[in-house]
């Protein structure tokens, strides 16, 4: 085993050198970070500003620029775990279906009799028809509106579950469609949250799906979870609905298919509006902050072609009637249509300041969340606390390494020096692998590195103790070292596999800091086996070849 | 002769089974005591597991916990606990408190308005106070986290047991697992005794302890298997003593290096991570003990297969290396 071919020596030393190279950017953390930020900013904007050029020049382009990602607990920022109310979408789908179903059933009025929408639980659409004996016909018409589910698991099934009893026809989404919709809702939410956060332009946010209907959001550098919530917690659902009536009664019964919504700026005023919108925020192509003719903050918006067409048709048919601009279940305003609006652009004005109008424009442009979100977990970590943790982590890692090195050298002399080189190389390799992977270092992760410093020498200890025994048994030096490495191997592998199992479990259980810890631990296990076995052996072989020792005191 | 620091002299012949009833008895009593402690005193669950809100405040001026409590008592926050945090690194100009607000309503966390009220109330007694960190966890999530923590410790234990079973014999797997349960119980017991904060990171520490403890056990088992093959007729108890003596130096050595590293972290790592480090440090001590005094005893009592002579895999029948599909190819 001590006969290491030249290419292998080169490979081992090369790997360590690479590790050094890739770990190096972390020594110049802020400089490299500015360099990287400048490049991203330049890519996004398409040009490079003066300051960006300076920041980019702060770190040579040809050097690796990957950095260990600092976790929220080290950098400060906000963490949110949100749950998407996927059921909201069922209701919206039924609302959207109603005009279609109404028209289809009304076309057969002479057969079916009068068609009337009745109260139904949320997510269901219930209709009563005049001639119950013609129910089969009504069901057939409703079925004609269904389309096949578009998902891998539910393919071939209808998206609507239609049931009939007496004179009542009930329509709701089928289970397969619900599953497919849920998935789409969460994906859309994820996408929209990402867009909203990107618009604000913070660095490296983490936005990932967790489980069936949850989204984990981590944004470093943001002031508080509250700020983040305001940005992503608003659904920003914009609709334009026909107005039925206006009043001051908060308990008025709006009737089926209609809703009673409060006004945003006029306290005590309520509007009854038709629940099915004419156009929605999804039809918007652009929204930007502006000012109305009185100089108050407003938002200009523009519809896409189909939205503009529908809006144009509706306004030209309803001149003199009011229509409501509804944002998140509040009526922003209900202007009267004076003329047909066919240009597809308009303005929302109301009681808002410039900051609010800017945020509203961002929200409208990024799109509405398809469903509401509630937050199950909120964490804010201040940047000072993070910096304190970094400092404490750095100090304790250095002290731990020095102490372990001193102890190893006191115990094993020259071989202790070899082990110390291996341990140091191990820490560097952990950092470089994490930089290359863009893995996140958390405070427990730092503890993981410190722990690895302690356990990484374990493999060396197993080997050295074994060599000691072989020497005591009277073997010659080379033979003793060779056997020591060979015999220790199975213990080292077994020991590391069991630790690996524990680390894997942690990785899959863990969230945030715990996951970071598991990643660090796992990387540390792999690199420590490499440094303890290959690097140490190579160092010993170099020494044997150079000194050709006759005796070895270990 | 060069100086070598040796905590364990060469060629020890300690009889580790001499006091086996005493040592095992201590372990059994400690395990039972831990369970009783947890049942009687309970655990100081962090918000990860219990839900609620914690606020970490920092102020350059000294404060009295009672003043803070007074200031907050006027707000209707439900269950509030305030503790002052001490750390050698803080110096004169840093005074830290942890305020924990229990789950008040359905949402399980403090509303932003309440947070502002808390901040305003504290400002009246200490104008320079700032919130260094605010964390809230709702009851829905905390319930799930507890469940997944249980699963994780269970899954890790089973995974490790399965691996040892594969590599050794079932007696070894059982011995290792009972040692693991011993370690977990004693760690949880320590957290109950000193009412240290028990949260997700504690579970991480517990899992690491499992890995470390079993690591130790496996090294001894590996050696034991080797000795069993070498000394076929020696009584099992003697082989075990021999093995532990042979590996004692390594066990102590590794425990000491890990202990040194963790102690550095304990002292200089700051207060945020302290409980986590305590759990791991204690895990190292307990893990070391359980390897020598628990895992082995179980294996001894269960007995173990003594005939390890199996056909050497290197001596293959002629032609066996060639995949079957090619063997009879023309």
Automatic annotation (TrEMBL), chain A:
Q: GO terms for molecular function, please?
A: protein-transporting ATPase activity
- Which cell locations does it reside in? Cell membrane
**The Protein export membrane protein SecD/SecF C-terminal domain, residue ranges:** 373-544
Going by the UniProt record, its keywords in alphabetical order are: Cell membrane, Membrane, Protein transport, Translocation, Transmembrane, Transmembrane helix, Transport
Q: What is the predominant subcellular site recorded for this chain?
A: membrane
Q: Which Pfam families does this one have?
A: SecD_1st, SecD_SecF_C, SecDF_P1_head
Its record classes its membrane topology as: Multi-pass membrane protein
Annotated ranges, domain SecDF P1 head subdomain: 261-371
Sequence ranges assigned to domain Protein translocase subunit SecDF P1 in this UniProt record: 186-243
Q: How does the record describe its quaternary structure?
A: Forms a complex with SecF. Part of the essential Sec protein translocation apparatus which comprises SecA, SecYEG and auxiliary proteins SecDF-YajC and YidC.
Family matches, as HAMAP family: SecD_B
Role noted for this protein: Part of the Sec protein translocase complex. Interacts with the SecYEG preprotein conducting channel. SecDF uses the proton motive force (PMF) to complete protein translocation after the ATP-dependent function of SecA.
Cross-referenced NCBIfam families: 2A0604s01, secD
Q: Which PANTHER family match?
A: PROTEIN TRANSLOCASE SUBUNIT SECD, PROTEIN-EXPORT MEMBRANE PROTEIN SEC
What the record says about family reads: Belongs to the SecD/SecF family. SecD subfamily.
Q: What name does this protein carry? A: Protein translocase subunit SecD
Q: Which organism is it from?
A: Paracoccus thiocyanatus
> Species lineage, top-down?
Bacteria, Pseudomonadati, Pseudomonadota, Alphaproteobacteria, Rhodobacterales
Automatic annotation (TrEMBL), chain B:
Pfam families in the cross-refs: Sec_GG, SecD_SecF_C
Locations of Basic and acidic residues compositional bias?
309-319
Subcellular locations according to the entry = Cell membrane
InterPro entries tied to this protein: SecD/SecF_arch_bac (IPR022813), SecD/SecF_bac (IPR022645), SecD/SecF_CS (IPR022646), SecD_SecF_C (IPR048634), SecD_SecF_C_bact (IPR055344), SecF_bac (IPR005665)
Q: How does it sit in the membrane?
A: Multi-pass membrane protein
Indicate the quaternary assembly.
Forms a complex with SecD. Part of the essential Sec protein translocation apparatus which comprises SecA, SecYEG and auxiliary proteins SecDF-YajC and YidC.
Can you say what this protein is called?
A: Protein-export membrane protein SecF
Protein's organism: Paracoccus thiocyanatus
